[in-house]
Amino acid sequence: MVNFVGVTEHNAWKSESWTERGEKAQLSADFASWHPTVRSIVEAIDEPFRWALFARAPLENWSVGRVTLLGDACHPMLPYLSQGAVMAIEDGYVLARCLQARGADLPAALRLYETLRLARTTKVQAGARAAGARFHLADPLVRLATFGRLSLGSRLAPARAMAANDWLMGYDATAQVA
Ligand SMILES: Cc1cc2nc3c(=O)[nH]c(=O)nc-3n(C[C@H](O)[C@H](O)[C@H](O)COP(=O)(O)OP(=O)(O)OC[C@H]3O[C@@H](n4cnc5c(N)ncnc54)[C@H](O)[C@@H]3O)c2cc1C
Question: What is the average pLDDT across 104-113?
Answer without folding.
Answer: 95
